[in-house]
Amino acid sequence: MRFMSMKLSCVLVSLATVFISASTAMSEERVVPLNISLMPPFAIAGSGDSVVSNISWGIVTKTARIEGASFSVVNIHTKSVRGLQSAWLVGTSGGSVDGLQSSLIVSSAKGDVNGAQVAVVVNHAGGSVDGMQVTGLISHASSSTKQISGIMSIAPSAGYQLSGLMSHAASAGNQTSGLMSYAPSAGNQVSGFMSHASTARLQASGFMNYVRDTVGVQIAGIVNVAHKSTVQSGLINVTGHSEGTQLGFINIAQQQDGVPLGAFSYVKGVPVRLNTWSDETGFANIGIVSGLPNIYSMFVVGYRSYDTPKWWSVGYGFGAHVTRGANFYQFDWVTTAMFNEDDPEFNENISRLRFALGRQLASRFSVYAGASLNVWTSDVSDGAAFIPSLSRSTKIEGTHVTFWPGVYAGIRF
User: Are the beta carbons of 194 and 207 closer than 8 angstroms?
Assistant: First the structure.
């Protein structure tokens, strides 16, 4: 009886060993050179987490990995892709992709992509992309070397993003977008409408650039805004601290270590002054003087009322102002466009190089007088009636040019 019990135990152990061995064999991956699938489980070499295909083709394919190439309408690999994964609709990888993943609708990988993802609608990588994502709609990755999208590129960290609508990243080397680029930390941002960053080397946009902290260069069609900047060029430039140049129609700075150039430049603590003067042409002129204490810009308008037709002028100038006690001298260049009632187009211009001496008579009142060298240029005439008779004229490539010396005197408030 004892012998029979021992024999039965040996049989049971043998059966258990066979069962475990069979289960292990079933769970091991099988490499098949060719797998054709209608849809799981209807595949000639099987499907699921145990199949590794070198070549896979069908309507819906599902294997553990592809090590070669896979072509189907819906392409699913639960572990990884090494080679080419091509799907008419959707291609997914449960792990990494080493090679190319392409589809018409969605290309998706839960892990890293070393190579490229291409899709008409959406690319998604759960890990990093060391290569490129190209899509007609949206590309998304945890980090990406290059993203090219018709609508939007999204990555917490990106080397280069190119999008038709918007590029978004926490940190980006280069962003180029048709509408907006956003990154708290950016190297270069180029956008059709707006660029936004906390720090950036370069921002260029058709409408507005905004940096919360420090920027190297900002170039905008309308507005630049920064906490600290080196170069700003736009219609309106605003900065807390300018370390270089502001070039625009209106410049505003809380602190200015460089030079602002514009029709109006405001620096906190520096008063805006009003100049009025007349010269040998008989124009009464008003200029708004702004900028730094020693380097200024000036927006100018002028009017000559006792002629028929009456003349108007509008222009811009910049110069230097040096104070010696109550006395001062200033040297500037002013150019104005001229027009009259009979000819409202700006066909004539006068440029003046001027030097003046002045004295401050009160805290907000000064007088000055000086001499100028003047140049008249016109495509239609060699000079107006108000130009002095001692002038000299010539013609250079169809343009009338007239020179003369002049004098002017004025009051500064």
Answer: yes
